Amino acid sequence: MSDTLFTSISNTEWSNVSGDALAGLLTNAADHDIRIMEASSAPNDQVTTGHTLNPGAFIQFNLTGRQKIFARGIRGNSVVVVTPGNGLINAPYSSDPYFDIASSKIPEQTVEHIVGRNPDIDTATDPEDVWNAGGLWVPPTAARIHNIVSTSASDVGLLVSSGTVDAATPTSVRDDSASFIADGVSAGDIIIDTTSHTHTVIQSVAATILTTLIANDGSAFNPGDNYWVVKATSTGASVVKLHVLLDDFTAIEEFVVLNGTTPVPTVNAITRINDLHIDGAASRATNVGTITATAVTDATVTAQINPGEGHHLSAIYTIPSNKTGYIKRLYASLNRQGGAGAAMADLSIWITPYARFGATGSRIVGYAGIAVIGTSRPSDIMPIPIRIPQETDIIVRCESVTDNNTDITAGFDLVLVDN
C-alpha cells in the first residue's frame, strides 16, 4: 500500500471501497501488517491480494510510522474506511472499546445503560419485575397510542411557538416567518427539533432568531426541520421524551408536552417504550407527580416516572429491529435500611425472542441470589457477552424476597450492533 493511497484514504472521512479495489491496495501486504480483527474467517488472519471481505469484517491496517486505520464491512463486499482524528472519529481509539462506542468513535454500534428499580416488593406479591411501577410488566397487545399524564397539575408545559428552521448554527436557530418576541418566547424556554429529536435551552430572543446552548447531543438544528418552543408554566416537568418501538419494532423518538392531570396522546402507535424521561422542567426542577404512559384499549401502563425521579427506572428493554444486543454487565442491589436479620432476594433475567410476532415462549438466561444486612451491589462483568437477537424482550425479575418492603435495584449494560 503506497503512501499516496494511504494519504488519499486517510483524508477522506468516509470512503466506499469495493472488494476488488481494496485487494488492489494490498499488493504490498507483505510490507505492512494488515489483519482481520473480526470476520467469519479465522481471527487475525493476514489479508492477501484477492481476499474476499465478508459483511461485518473489521480490518486493521498498521503502517509503519502511521496511526491505525480501520475498515468495517457494511454491504456485500464493500467497506467503509474510517480514520482516527477525522470529523466522525474525534480522537484516536483508546484502550477501552466501550468508551470508544459510547463516544461514537466506532460506527454502527451504540451502548445502552439499563437501570431499574422496584422500591417495594413483599413476600405476598413476588414475583415482581424490577421497574418502578411495581408488579409484573405487561406489554401492549398491539401497537397502541399511549396517553401521557401526571398525577400532579404542576407537571405542565405550554407550546408557545412552532415553525420550520430556515437557518441554524450550533448556537442559534432562525425562522424568517417567526415572531418569537410576540409569541412570548423567553430565555430558559426549551426548543425542540421534532424532526431530528434533539433539544436545547434558549439563551436570548430576537424577532426571528433564537440564541441557544449547544444541543444536548452536540448537533445543530437543520434547515427544513420542524421545531417547538416550550415553556414550563408551573413548578414541575413540562416535556417528556420517549424512546419507543413502532409496530415493526423500528426505534424512533417522540416528545410530548405535558398537560398536568389531563392525558396527552402520543402521535405514534407504540409497541414498546425503552426509555421515558423528562426533557424540560421549571428551573432546576423535576417531575412533581407520577407520570405514566398508558396504552389505550389495553389500559396497561407501559412506562412510569415516579415523583422526583425524572426518569423511567426499568430493567426492561426490547432489542429494536435490525439490531443485535450484547449484554456485557449485569448488576443488582438490595437496599435495606435496617433489620436484625439478613434480607434475601432471588433475581432472574428473562428473554422472549420474536416478541414482535406475539411469541410467548420465554426463558431464563441468568439467575442470582442476594443476601445482605444493609446494602449490597454485586456486579457480573462478562468476558463473553450474552447475545440477544433483534425484537427480543429482556426483563430482570425478582422471583422472591424474604422480607416485606424490599427495595431492589438492577440493570445491565448493553451494546447494540447494526445487523
CA-CA gap between termini: 30 Å
Count of helix runs: 4
Helix content: under 10%
Low-confidence stretches: 1-92
| Structural class assignment | mainly beta
Major sheet characteristics: 7 strands, antiparallel
Radius of gyration: 25 Å
- The largest beta-sheet arranges its strands as 9-15-12-13-14-11-10
Based on the coordinates given, report the CATH architecture of the largest domain: Sandwich
What is the CATH class name of the largest domain? Mainly Beta
> Strand share of the residues?
over 45%
Mean pLDDT: 78
* Total beta strands: 29
Q: Globular, elongated, flat, extended or rod-shaped: what is the shape? A: globular
Instruction: Count the domains.
Output: 4
Annotate the secondary structure layout.
Layout (H helix, E strand, L loop, with lengths): L2 H8 L4 E3 L1 H7 L7 E6 L19 E5 L6 E7 L2 E5 L14 H6 L6 E13 L6 E2 L16 E5 L6 E8 L2 E3 L2 E3 L5 H4 L6 E4 L4 E8 L3 E4 L13 E7 L4 E9 L5 E7 L6 E2 L6 E10 L9 E5 L4 E6 L10 E3 L4 E13 L7 E10 L10 E10 L2 E2 L2 E10 L4 E9 L4 E13 L1
Antiparallel strand pairs: 1-5, 2-3, 3-4, 4-5, 6-29, 7-28, 8-18, 8-20, 9-15, 10-11, 11-14, 12-13, 12-15, 13-14, 16-17, 16-19, 20-21, 22-28, 23-26, 23-27, 23-29, 24-25, 24-28
